[in-house]
Amino acid sequence: MMLLKEEILWSDFSFRMLTNTIAHPIEYAKVLIQIGYEPIPPRRTTTLFQQPALALPNVFQYVRYIKNVDGYTGCYRGLIPKLCASTVSAVVFEKVSKSIKFVDEPGKEIDNADLGKKCIYEFIRDLISRMIGIIVSHPLDVIALRMMAQFVGGETKYNGLFRSFVEVYKENGIMGYYAGLVPRLIGNAAVLVIVSSCSYVIDKYVTSDREVRSYAVSTIKFVATTITYPFLVVSHCMAVNNCGLIAGLPPQMPIYSSWLDCWSHLSNTNQLKRGNSLLWRYYTGPQVIINGVPIPLDKKFDYSNLYLKDK
Predict the structure, then answer these.
(1) Residue 84 in contact with residue 18, Cβ under 8 Å?
(2) Could you tell me the CA-to-CA distances from 148 to 132, 152, 153, 231 in Å, in that order?
(3) Which one of 14, 106, 169, 245 is most buried, by most CB atoms within 10 A?
(4) Assign residue 29 a region: left if phi > 0, alpha if psi is -120 to 50, beta otherwise?
(5) Is the confidence at residue 46, as pLDDT, over 80?
(6) How far apart are CA 152 and CA 59, in angstroms?
(7) Cα–Cα distance between 144 and 89 in angstroms, integer?
(8) 8 A C-beta contact, residue 290 and residue 310
């Protein structure tokens, strides 16, 4: 029985690794979008309500652009440290979760009186395990993000795990390994709070049916992840900010004094949700209206010629 359980766990782990590998080009493009890199100019279009807008390339067009620049293998920048981070986080989560035990924790068969206590204990266990897993694996995530961010300037500073660990220390010292950690922890903790609270309400007041509960919890988790998405954007920006790469320096990105400074800037420029939508993306940055047409505010853009042509 124990052997069968271990085989199932290894099969789940292998499936997760395979899924992460296949989806990496999309995640790679999403990271570049999150840190504000838009190499393809927006095109004029209209929204569903027939309002003029500027459409940015969807994630698949973005992946095609990366492939055209770096080739097929270039779409897998940062994959190795990302897989290592995922593995370390999963192993640490499992080990810590098994080691946390409560003296008066209810068993599997419980009544409504003990439901609240069980939910609290499960939440505390998951929260501690997840936070420790993130903290331990975060340096690998930072390296993966910086490897991907090198695409912006075509650099090769972060190349290979060992060399990248040294490079992070040279650029930012010990704290560089934990750049962007705080907003990431807050975002993950918020998701756990929302999911755990709603799960308790469903179990206690709605239904105890496992199948219905599974669908409901999956939906709640999706909504919670969407709500806390800005924390992920800020975390990724801070992991790249002022790291010696063009992607993390002006004019591509301001140098932020803290993650709160980053949040404030992205909030003021309506960029906290960038990368959230993969198919329908609209330019929301500074723009001017010429002849009723929105145009991105760009110093390199010749507005006079556009005006004369439209007129």
Answers:
(1) no
(2) 25, 8, 10, 19
(3) 245
(4) alpha
(5) no
(6) 16
(7) 14
(8) yes
